[in-house]
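Researcher: I'd like a structural prediction for the single chain below. Treat it as a standalone chain; there are no partners to consider.
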Amino acid sequence: MERLTYFVDILLPLPLKNAFTYRVPQELESEIAVGKRVVVPFANHKKYAGLIVRIHHEAPTAYVTKYVQSVLDEKPIVNGVQFEFWQWISSYYMCTLGDVMAAALPSAFKLSNESKIVLNPDFDGDISTLSDHELHVTEALNYKPELSIEEISRITGLVKTIHLIKNLRDKNIVMIKDEVLEKIKPKIEVYLKLHANYENEENLQKLFDKLEKKAVKQLEILMLFIHLTNGQTHREIKRSELSQTSQNAAATIQALVKKQVFELVEKIETRLETSDSTHELDQIQFSAEQQNAFDEIQNNFKEKNVTLLHGITGSGKTEIYIKLIEQAVNSGKQVLYLLPEIALTSQIIHRLRRYFGEKVGIYHSKFNQQERVEVWQRVMNQGENRFQIILGARSAVFLPFDNLGLVIVDEEHETSFKQYDPAPRYNARDAAIYLANLHNAKTILGSATPSIESYFNAQIGKYGLVELLKRYGNVNLPSIKIADLKQETREKTMHSYFSSVLMTEITKALEQKEQIILFQNRRGFSLRLECDVCNFMPECQNCDVTLTYHKHSNQLKCHYCGLAIPVPEKCPKCGHSYLTMKGFGTEKIEDDLAVFFPDAKIRRMDLDTTRSKNAYRQIIQDFEDRKIDILVGTQMVTKGLDFDNVSVVGILSADNLISFPDFRAYERSFQLMAQVSGRAGRRNTQGKVIIQTYNKNFPVLQQIIDNNYSAMYLSQLRDRQQFRYPPYFRLIRIAVKHKDFKVLEKSVSALSLQLKGHFGNQVLGPNFPLVSRINTYYIKEFLLKLDRKNNINTVKNQLTDILQNFSKTSQHKSLRIVVDVDPQ
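Model: Treating it as a single chain, here is the predicted structure.
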């Protein structure tokens, strides 16, 4: 009987539509399995870690198959439900499976292709024609058989070494070989253990006597080891712990290792923080309103898989989540708890770990790749160190759950759940609902200000609806005052950008040792620099935006492409030195507050101050510990944080939120202002909120004052039905980009004819977006408005065909076309 040949379809982390078929060598046939990673050559002999998605015996007819080179995993790292989830993401958000794989897997699961330089075996040793740099590299290769490009750069002092390596290769002196490096590296901790010879007291005493005469420092280290192990000589301690005790401790320890006094023991350790549970779940005491809400959720789950919990700020939604998590964990299920901001995870994680200890893991982009891999593996594991509960930002939906029982999406209205670039441009809230459906799990969407789409789905019966409209402990909602900036400017009672009303409340709060949060949705010091003579404003050379002044770095920066330039001393256009700062950001607010309140401890929380891994947590912890009196921030301060000593919240510029040219501007401004207002007065006192505006007649401001979500919802619903927006219509945005404006204009006109010829008046555009050039690319957009009665899959297939055929033509190949389904 003829032996069957094995083939595997491999998915690569590249923006490619299909998997590729490879042949499996006989010696690897027993190792292959769907979901395992394998090393395969692809495109110009580069090597990639691909995923096996199918095993079969069918050789492709279109091309000659290459061989799988090695299998990287002992067991699959991706399961069948994940593959199904990836397929849905790819289909719904109109991207490739390769895009989804690249987003889903931690980078450490991918391989790097590192070029190594080696001596050519045919090199005859003649160095007479070599330059100094070439000679240095050749000599180094005589001592070390292979060098990386980074090492060659270090040896020669050259930043760019491509031409040098090319010259050496052309002279047949070196060869280039590609080495595949796997990036997963376990954390190894070295422990010290007393040698078995000295575990009995007699031998140990002899050692003491010997060291006392000849090596006093070694005796001191040995005595310290005995002290740290509490005299239990069989115990081990970290070498790093003992090394930190004195300046030369490391050398002394090494000497004791050589004398076989200490043994070195290597252990694989976790990179993640650990903690045990310290509270019993029965310590959570529900109010009558919480109990009713909890019972309603349970009843809804009997008929519906998704329930929207509309609970005002401070109503105690988190305690309800914890009780629901307890039920899922006790039944052996896994739980996914999604939050929109990393800032929130640091506060919630402590609350969850108090009750669930080591069962809780955390997953977000501030973790390094090794930490992310460890979380991935502990979600996948079946042993004692398995994570049953994952708290994370949007990327946590891609973790390898195999028994998901409950999904919680807190602050479900937040736009941070939407991925913008690169593809897949998914909404983690909607993706989590689909993921829960694949696992037959239940989903809770929680918010004090639900998105209009989610509330609409609850009203029409698609979701269950539970409302919790009283604060826990019957604490009153904050009183809200409107500060009329137009009147205060006229009466000259403004203090920089602060109204007299806000200044009075800040002063009172500081006198009473209470805390203040100030919200300004712009970072930086000044929004722009402007010449008073010719009105010139420095703009980004790559984007159509003015540059923002950052005082800390004394630079003008672009918040789109990252360009940074020094502040000009005089106007580049007219030469005058009358340059004035216009507008204000969080940095300017922080600076001015220090002048008005010199004794107050002021901190800022925005993108600039939270770039490092633990910056969020440190600022939040300091605020909780009352080491900060006034916290100034962007949207980060609005999202679900719970502080019990905040009595005043100031919204410094409501107009920027309300007047933003977007159909969701009223909804978003209501949500942001209601959320940041909810940070005030969380425990026993009523807080105060000051909203500064030049137009106090905005209807949304009265809705905020009345805490009237329903009024906002109904008014927006009428507008959206009239103007064909969600929740009545679906949106697909098509952005076309090119570096040459004329090429873009011509191509967009051609695409417009095709789109409008097929979809008619469902197509809006082409129009320039608010920022019409980003990172040297000019942009024009189409908006496709689709009635929900239409078959969305049919429309997407038609749109895909149009765009693919359009892109294939030679004059349009250089275009970048970005499709965004359900844009936010």
